[in-house]
Amino acid sequence: MSDLDISVVICVYTEDRWEDILAAVSSVRAQSRPALETLLVVDHNPALLDRLGKEYKEAEDVTVLANAGPRGLSAGRNTGIAAARGEVIAFLDDDAVAEREWLRRFAEGYADPRVMAVGGRTMPIWASGRRPAWFPEEFDWVVGCTYKGLPPGLVRVRNVLGGNASFRRTAFDAAGGFATGIGRDGDKRPLGCEETELCIRLTRARPDAVLLIDDRAVIHHRVPEAREHFGYFRTRAYAEGLSKALVARSVGADKGLESERRYTTRVLPAGVVRGLRDAVLARPGGAGRAGAIVAGALTAAGGYVVGSVRARKGGATFSVVGIEGGSQ
């Protein structure tokens, strides 16, 4: 079923990423397997909406539209889903570029009709030109990238990662759209996990559903200089804990924390050991990486505790809406 039409949704929110947005669209246009269309969803920014509308006015393959829901990434994605005409909907971050075979790898995954989602591998492009010596690969999810500890190859997973993912349209028919209230809102709060919650909701609605990651479906994601510092690392880890608490509250801790248990009991301890070993061998950054892993884990755990208390008190909520539309 690799002949499925694929729509690509790119959610955008700031003119500061103008060149990145153009590069993202160009990377979709350069695919070896062409997309049916590219949808640019603008998040409550009239100036950017107008500018992009003019940029792609003559383009038959690019549609620019405004987020029809509340501010934030989840509602933007839902707007794109509703407008998309493809049988598969792929999502690309606005500050990322896809390799030429990206959509072809996604399409191959859908040969099995049970497959409801296919994700890929996201590689960091560090603003400084190289990974900070203290930054552990086990925490690359902090900057929206594939992290050390995920199994390689074509593997079945609990959830795909939202900035490099695709879903069958029927997945949204079965489970509804992305939940609003837990995803990102521009640069205001580095929350996440909306794709985790959706994927768990999907497998509950469709117990036979298969979700895959193919690490040959590669995108390259820009990491701005501000996110190379420990302050952002700590803030993002705390926000992840908050988000995970919301997800666990919604779907239950057994499923909501299933992958995290393996990550915290096996992947992170192994990373600490590697960091300490490198420190003993006088390799740069070893002690820093070990310390960052411990600090990141404790900070995320703290966020989870705070988020759990808030959720129990009803102070943090999110909502799921059905997706209307399906054609332009």
Unreliable residue stretches: 183-190
The average pLDDT value, as a whole number, equals 90
The secondary structure category is alpha/beta
SSE order: EHEHEHEEHEEEHHEHHHH
Question: Any idea what the radius of gyration is?
Answer: 19 Å
The strand count comes to: 9
Strand residues, percent: 15-25%
Walk me through this protein's architecture.
With 328 residues, the protein is of the alpha/beta class. It contains ten helices and nine strands. It has helices at 18-29, 46-55, 73-83, 102-109, 169-175, 194-205, 230-251, 253-256, 258-280, 286-313; strands at residues 6-12, 37-42, 62-66, 88-92, 96-98, 115-126, 154-156, 164-168, 210-223. Strands 1, 2, 3, 4, 5, 6, 7, 8 and 9 form a nine-stranded mixed β-sheet that branches. Helix 2 (46-55) links the parallel strand 2 and strand 3. Helix 5 (169-175) packs across helix 6 (194-205), helix 6 (194-205) runs parallel beside helix 7 (230-251) and helix 9 runs antiparallel to helix 10 (286-313). The protein starts with 5 loop residues before the first strand and ends in a 15-residue tail after the last helix. The model is unreliable at 183-190 (pLDDT under 50).
Which key phrases capture this entry?
nine-stranded mixed beta sheet; alpha/beta
